[in-house]
Specification:
Number of helices: 7
Order of helices and strands: HHHHHHH
Strand content: under 5%
Radius of gyration: 19 Å
Structural class: mainly alpha
Number of strands: 0
Helix content: over 70%
Distance between the termini: 56 Å
């Protein structure tokens, strides 16, 4: 009986933790400008290059096994930083999307706001999975990591935000898909 209760408590704690991790922690964001200010810059071309399987194979063919493992650990650490930034930006998008859903001024864009919320939650969940993969990749650099879908999902969510920004005539509309 106590064992069952313990498993139930651990399960509930895990569900609450994951729910909190997916939704993120941020205050409501009321404007595109405020969301833009909270977004972290991401150099998308550099990140794309880091996760490119062809680049990985090129390095594997040119370097010794030891050097390749060392370089892969370093690349995975850099990817971790990018993925954490994407997760943080997804939290900002999620917060703005939720605020837009409740805003009477953006009532005409409720469908787009719902898309942003859904896409941001997907990005956040995918980012958390990618973070776990990348930590494993730091320990075991020979693992084949699949984080490419994260970039596609993030770009979709950011483009939806940009669309609403353009539709509402915001001057900061393009800031969501920033490249450094």
């Amino acid at each position: 009986m106590i064992t069952t209760l313990l498993f139930v408590l651990v399960g509930l704690s895990a569900v609450l933790f994951l729910g909190r991790a997916v939704h993120g922690r941020t205050e409501p964001i009321s404007s595109v400008a405020e969301a833009t200010a909270r977004m972290k810059q991401i150099d998308l071309p550099a990140f794309t290059n880091l996760i490119d399987p062809a680049q990985r194979e090129y390095l594997r063919s040119r370097l010794s096994r030891h050097d390749f493992a060392y370089l892969e650990r370093m690349r995975n650490r850099v990817c971790l930083e990018y993925v954490k930034r994407i997760a943080d930006n997804a939290t900002v998008l999620l917060s703005w999307g939720r605020s837009a859903l409740l805003s009477p001024e953006l009532a005409a864009y409720k469908d787009e706001a719902r898309e942003i919320v859904d896409a941001a939650m997907t990005v956040r969940l995918t980012a958390l999975y990618a973070i776990a993969q990348l930590y494993l990749g730091v320990v075991m650099p020979s693992l084949e990591l699949q984080v490419g879908s994260l970039l596609t999902k993030y770009q979709y969510a950011a483009s939806r935000m940009t669309t609403i920004g353009v539709l509402t005539h915001s001057s900061e509309a393009g800031a969501y898909s920033r490249t450094a």
